[in-house]
Design goal:
The chain has helices spanning about 35-50, 70-75, 85-95, 135-140, 145-155, 170-180, 185-205, 225-235, 245-260, 260-265; strands spanning about 1-10, 15-20, 25-30, 55-65, 80, 100-105, 110-115, 120-125, 215, 240, 280-285, 295-300, 300-305. It has about 325 residues and is of the alpha/beta class. A five-stranded mixed sheet has the order 3-2-1-4-5. A hairpin with a 4-residue loop joins strand 2 and strand 3. Helix 1 (about 35-50) crosses helix 2 and helix 7 crosses helix 8. The protein starts with a strand and ends in a 25-residue tail after the last strand. The model is unreliable at about 320-330 (pLDDT under 50).
Length: about 325
């Protein structure tokens, strides 16, 4: 059986998924990135190998997320795609006809507008994390709650408190103030979820035509209070698909399957990549005023990938083999 591997490396979490030719998700792994994406990718491969169906082979691999280039270099992926494309493909597969995707992750959030199955518009948050999962994580920890408990407790609210949500700092200050004057914990948490939704709609969703069917995905979609807050704000049903937290990885796997005719034979290194020694280093190129920071990834001491340059001068695109030599350039 031929199956396809998808990897989504985000700032907070790393996801790996296996998808077969009938578009079924066979296995998935969800890990915290912990600031060590290469090591966590390897750990994900170890765990995923144990879930590999018998008599199956990896026919293709795709990567997405902010760490997609690193993930592709470590695993030998065939397809590298941005998050917008990966999430749109996955959502369209699980919810045919979807026209709006709301996606909130650990450090970023995005909205994708689809019409007739094609992504026609999108937007992402800029510099503020007030509308993302990390802010919810922080507030849950401050209140001695797990992130899972936060959503359940918030659903008990009868009168959500109005909390300023345009800025993470102001939101926390306002939350503390409302807490100190005696509002109940469920009302505070429900108000916090509603503040995050207002932040999202006023910044990420500003000016967008949000039409149903509306799909909510990303790690924050696991919070039922956030789903309820979106439904209240938009007056629409919000669909949380199965594997909502894995949609980026699933989309990368689906894209690897879709583009199989282009690469034919996979470059995937195999699950042995989990035990190989990868090292990375960086330097600044002085060849022009851009002063690009060039990152080099080495496998067993041999450079296998470079990225970070705007001009493409330093990039390595050839797959690694023990006897390969990379192109060398003289930096002015």
């Amino acid at each position: 059986m031929e199956i396809y591997l998808g990897i989504d490396v985000g700032s907070v979490t790393t996801k790996l998924a296996l998808v077969d030719d009938s578009l079924q998700v066979l296995a998935a792994v969800y890990l915290r990135t912990l600031g060590q994406p290469a090591r966590i990718i390897q750990e994900g491969l170890r765990q995923l190998e144990k879930k590999l169906p018998p008599h199956s082979t990896i026919a293709g691999a795709g990567t997405t997320g902010s760490g997609r280039h690193l993930a592709a270099a470590v695993t030998g992926a065939d397809v590298i795609k941005n998050e917008i494309t990966a999430h749109a493909v996955a959502a369209s597969t699980f919810v045919p006809g979807v026209r709006t995707i709301l996606e909130i992750g650990g450090q970023d959030s995005k909205i994708i507008i689809l019409r007739d199955g094609i992504a026609v518009d999108f937007a992402m948050n800029t510099v503020c994390a007030a509308g993302t999962g990390s802010f919810l994580d922080h507030q849950a920890a401050r209140l001695s709650l797990s992130i899972e408990e936060l959503g359940k407790v918030a659903l008990e609210s009868k009168h959500p408190v109005r909390i300023a949500g345009r800025c993470a700092v102001f939101a926390e200050s306002d939350l503390v103030h409302k807490q100190q004057i005696g509002h109940s914990l469920p009302d505070l948490l429900a108000g916090l979820c509603e503040a995050l939704v207002r932040n999202y709609l006023n910044n990420v969703g500003k000016g967008k035509e949000i039409l149903p069917p509306i799909v909510f995905q990303g790690g924050v979609a696991a919070n039922p209070a956030m789903r309820k807050a979106f439904e209240k704000a938009l007056q629409q049903e919000i669909i949380v698909p199965p594997h909502h937290e894995m949609m980026g990885a699933i989309g990368a796997a689906l894209l690897a399957r879709e583009e199989k005719p282009l690469y034919k034979t996979t470059r995937f290194r195999g699950f042995a990549a989990a035990e190989q020694l990868f090292e990375s280093s960086s330097r600044v190129c002085s060849g022009c005023p851009n002063q690009c920071e060039i990152i080099t990834l080495k496998l067993d001491g041999a450079p296998i990938a470079r990225w970070g340059d705007r001009c493409g001068k330093w990039q390595i695109s050839r797959p690694y083999s023990p006897n390969s030599q990379i192109d060398s350039f003289c930096c002015a």
